Amino acid sequence: MKIDIYQDTVCPWCRIGQAHLMQALRKISIEPLEINYKAFLLDPTTPPEGRPRSTLIEKLGGQQRSDEMHNRLCKIGEACGVEFHFEEIERIPNTLLSHQLIKLTPHDKQRAMVDALHDAYFEQGLDIGQMDVLLDIAKSQGLDPVEVKGKLLAEEQLPEVERDLAFAEAANISGVPFFVINDTYGISGAQPVDVFVQALTQIAETT
Predict the structure, then answer these.
(1) CA pair distance 11, 108, nearest whole angstrom
(2) Which own/partner pairs from 155-162 qualify as long-range (CB within 8 Å, at least 24 positions apart)?
(3) Quick one: which of 131, 135, 130 has its CA closest to 146?
(4) Which residue numbers in the chain have pLDDT < 70?
(5) What would the pLDDT profile of 5-20 be if each residue is shown by its tens digit?
(6) 189 — phi, psi (to 5°)?
(7) DSSP 102-134
(8) pTM for the whole structure
(9) Are 21 and 3 in contact (CB under 8 A)?
């Protein structure tokens, strides 16, 4: 089974959706299994330097509504084993470089890289749009920061990221997380674990 996960690295629902998917996969036996991380930009207009977090609070309808949504996310995250510390976040990053970092990471280490990016942003409030932050994360995941910097500056993985974005647009994927199974079936949103179990089991039985 092949699972393509369309996600953005600053999307809290993507973190929850991945956690639910992994819990579901631990409940059922699917072999062989291939998981690919595909790029999506929640806000393609975000400038390279990012935006102040206050702009997101305004977009969500003010401080009270923002706090309510974040409290809900924290509770859902706690239930599936992931943490959010939204109070640590000061900027909303441009995530284009972080997607390129995922792409240049060896395939078998990409899930750990995505987790590291999520930890850095959602738990530590780090600006994962900044080169120095990404290089520290890359180093923590066993990659050579000098080599990574060279590839990011040369935009070697940018065409692959752009192909993901073009596919998402052509497929009318308007929100993430979005899961494409075996290039055929789509699952939208951070569905509960049982929904993933049922859907993946049915798909496995028909292939």
Answers:
(1) 22
(2) 155/100, 156/100, 156/104, 157/99, 157/100, 157/101, 157/103, 157/104, 158/96, 158/100, 160/103, 161/39, 161/96, 161/99, 161/100, 161/103
(3) 135
(4) none
(5) 999 999 999 999 999 9
(6) 90, 170
(7) HHHS-GGGHHHHHHHHHIIIIIT---TTSHHHH
(8) 0.95
(9) yes
